[in-house]
Specification:
Belongs to the TRAFAC class translation factor GTPase superfamily. Classic translation factor GTPase family. IF-2 subfamily. InterPro entries: EF-G-like_DII (IPR053905), IF2_II (IPR044145), P-loop_NTPase (IPR027417), Small_GTP-bd (IPR005225), T_Tr_GTP-bd_dom (IPR000795), TIF_IF2 (IPR015760), TIF_IF2_dom3 (IPR023115), TIF_IF2_dom3_sf (IPR036925). This is Translation initiation factor IF-2, chloroplastic. It comes from Plasmodium cynomolgi (strain B). Helix 4 packs parallel to helix 5. Strand 27 and strand 28 form a beta hairpin. The chain folds into five domains: 84 residues, no CATH class; 163 residues, Rossmann fold (3-Layer(aba) Sandwich), CATH 3.40.50.300; 100 residues, Translation factors (Elongation Factor Tu (Ef-tu), domain 3, Beta Barrel), CATH 2.40.30; 110 residues, Rossmann fold, CATH 3.40.50.10050; 93 residues, Elongation Factor Tu (Ef-tu), domain 3 (Beta Barrel), CATH 2.40.30. The protein has 13 helices and 34 strands. Helix content is 19%, strand content 30%. It has 687 residues and is of the alpha+beta class. It is globular.
């Protein structure tokens, strides 16, 4: 395939002589593009008309020469007349840099490629060696004739919102697939994003230095996802590459250049700047955002707004952290100059306006709309539908949920909150919330009916319930939902939605409780005294993701929290895996105690019998599953655990049994426990 490094547009009629090319497999430094109305034809050696093709080199004097693979330059030449461009055509003919995004599954080599091409060391800085935020860099090819903007995105499944933003803003996406692992779950997700936004792609097959890698296997697997590569007659380029082989990376850059040549990317520098917020954070300079300019020009001292935030560009730095006065389309820049408490949201667009009053007015209007939509319970955030399914669990950032404020809910309380018990304690303390006692199924039988439960010889059946006949109609109740409150502080605003989404998806449950999470607040920056006070008022656990305790906090803050009776404590993490693990452990603490093993079955005690050997046995009916002799059990009364132990006797009609099943009526004796009553529930567990 021909390799090109430059593009020319000729806007006038051209007379060109076509001559014989000794070698069809040629390389050229330039492409000669001629408008349809300007094409003329010459005569080849076979006297057939031939259309002007690529493979010519244009010189300032108008001569064009063919450059061959063997380095020789053909002596024949031709003349081209080029019209002088007008001012309008000059700006229209300018082309902005291509925005290229790396996407793919976790640990498939995206950041390693990014570091090699950009000559950075981002992977070494990553906690846990996984990418957890978005980054952008401006890259020049070795010849300095081709510049493009490269964006790296995380591969972990939880970072889907960031990957989605990366694809939306790109002109070209590099789908990175490990030659060792092939197509994985997030690879498929990325393919769906590419198709949804109609983005051109290149397939980069990485880790080609490893044994047993197969490009053919990956190419064939891509057919199942309707990705047709050049190897299968399609138009998608496939580039095998390895960071240990510099030539393979050069081929990837050549592929990017070739795809860019077919993209129409006009550069309009005279317009006011606008673009998208990639991320934002707080440092010693105040609120800082990472912007990608998408059209026009952004300049120092420009006034701008983005969502409900606004400001004036006071400092602007490029990808090398150098101060710049302006940035044009496709340039990634760091912007300082936001008003206080005006943190921009990742994914929001920014616009340059004529003065501060306009910027403030528009930002305030957007803020009012956001607050109104929150009060109506509409979708929160910029990712369409990403948190809709969890909306009822979210208390909006920095705001009181209308469900918790009767004034905002017509004087009515949220039924979910009414369900929570009223607990008493010291002022400012929110003790642990316990679940309500559940209802025991009422199983009523015919009056005077004798239960068909037989026990050991010599047993005297005491008076008890006559409701066992409907025991087989028992239906397991849904577990009671218990919530754990979380207060989130993290380093980057783009990570806020990721952490929310991640925590809200988690759920653990047993036969009694289903434990879920609620977010009472989420923001960026270090943890302050006011954060701790606010979290304590909600009995919330503070999650500090890549942040630390503010210097304003007393040195004994950690000791004070551990000594407090409330549930408030701080979890410090810098890797998502660790956060998930610690949060799951907290959730499991909320589950009721149970014996070791896997849940197998449940029975209800109908009668209590006195026996000489064990003292008492329970006449039961099995409602679900199976129960084995000598299995671990827990006995519950009104959804409260009253005993954890073991079955030592299991009989049906005086016959010892090894197992009983759903619908069986049996007698059970428990090790060192006789304080059970009719209506108690028995759960069986097997190790």
């Amino acid at each position: 395939m021909a390799q090109f490094t430059h593009l020319f547009n000729i806007w006038d009629i051209i007379d060109i002589e076509i001559y014989e090319r000794p070698d069809a497999n040629f390389k050229s430094n330039y492409i000669l593009t001629i408008p349809e109305e300007s094409k003329t034809f010459g005569k080849g050696n076979n006297n057939e008309e031939e259309e002007v093709q690529t493979g010519v080199k244009a010189n300032p004097n108008g001569e064009t020469k063919l450059r061959l693979n063997n380095g020789r330059v053909e002596s024949k030449s031709c003349k081209a007349r080029i019209a002088s461009p007008t001012e309008d055509t000059t700006e229209k003919s300018k082309k902005r840099n291509t925005v290229v995004t790396f996407i793919g599954h976790i640990n498939h080599g995206k950041t390693s490629l990014f570091d090699y091409i950009c000559k950075t060391k981002e992977r070494e800085k990553e906690k846990g060696l996984i990418t957890q935020n978005i980054r952008a860099f401006k890259v020049k090819s070795r010849s300095n004739d081709f510049t493009f903007t490269l964006i790296d995105t995380p591969g972990h499944e939880a970072f889907m919102p960031i990957r989605s933003r990366g694809v939306k803003i790109s002109d070209l996406s590099i789908l990175v697939i490990s030659g060792e692992e092939g197509i994985q779950e997030q690879t498929v997700e990325c393919i769906k994003l590419i198709k949804e936004h109609h983005i051109r792609i290149i397939i980069a097959v990485t880790k080609m230095d490893l044994p047993n890698v197969s490009v053919d296997r990956i190419v064939n697997d891509l057919l199942h996802h309707e990705i047709y590569t050049e190897m299968n007659g399609g138009d998608v380029q496939v580039v095998p590459c390895s960071i240990l082989n510099g030539d393979s990376i050069d081929k990837l850059i050549d592929a990017i250049y070739l795809e860019s040549a077919f993209l129409e990317l006009p550069l309009e520098e005279s317009k006011n700047g606008e673009g998208v917020i990639l991320d934002s954070y707080i440092d010693k300079n105040g609120i800082v955002s990472i912007n990608l300019v998408q059209s026009g020009t952004l300049r120092v001292n420009d006034y701008f707004y983005t969502g409900s935030s606004y400001g004036k560009v006071k400092i602007m730095k490029d990808h090398l952290n150098k101060n710049v006065k302006s940035a044009c389309a496709s340039d990634p820049v760091m912007v300082v100059g936001y008003e206080k408490n005006s943190v921009p949201i990742a994914g929001d667009r920014f616009y340059v306006v004529q003065n501060e009053a306009v910027a403030e007015e528009i930002a305030q209007h957007h803020k009012n709309e956001l607050l109104a939509s929150q009060m109506r319970g509409f979708t929160y955030g910029q990712e369409e539908g990403s948190l809709d399914r969890y909306r009822e669990y979210i208390i909006r950032d920095g705001a009181v949920s209308p469900d918790e404020d009767p004034k905002q809910n017509g004087g009515k309380k949220n039924p979910e909150l009414e369900e929570a018990p009223q607990v008493e304690g010291h002022p400012g303390e929110i003790p642990k919330v316990e679940g309500h006692p559940g209802e025991t199924p009422q199983m009523e039988g015919d009056p005077g009916e004798t239960p068909n439960v037989e026990g050991h010889p010599g047993e005297t059946p005491p008076q008890g319930s006559n409701n066992e006949r409907e025991a087989n109609t028992f239906r397991e109740k849904d577990p009671k939902t218990v919530y754990v409150n979380y207060f989130i502080k993290c380093d980057k605003q783009g990570t806020v939605d990721v952490l929310k989404n991640c925590l809200l998806k988690l759920e653990v449950k047993d036969t009694l409780h289903r434990v879920r999470n609620k977010i009472v607040y989420a923001s960026i920056g270090d943890i302050t005294v006011s954060d701790i006070t606010y979290a304590q008022s909600f009995n919330a656990i503070i999650v500090g993701f890549n942040v630390k305790l503010s210097k304003s906090c007393p040195k004994n803050t950690k000791h004070m929290l551990s000594a407090a009776k409330s549930n408030c404590r701080i979890i410090y993490v810098n890797v998502l895996y660790d956060l998930i693990e610690q949060v799951e452990n907290v959730m499991k603490e909320k589950l009721s105690s149970k014996p070791r093993g896997t849940y197998k079955g449940q029975a209800t005690i109908l009668k209590v019998f006195s026996v000489s050997k064990l003292g008492k046995v329970a006449g039961c009916v099995v409602n679900s599953g199976t129960i084995n002799n000598n299995s671990n059990v827990r006995i519950l009364r009104k959804d409260q655990v009253i005993h954890i132990g073991k079955i030592v006797s299991l009989k049906i009609a005086k016959e010892e049994k090894g197992q009983v099943r759903q619908g069986d009526e049996c007698g059970m004796g428990f090790e060192n426990f006789v304080d059970f009553l009719p209506g108690d529930s028995v759960e069986s567990y097997e190790e």
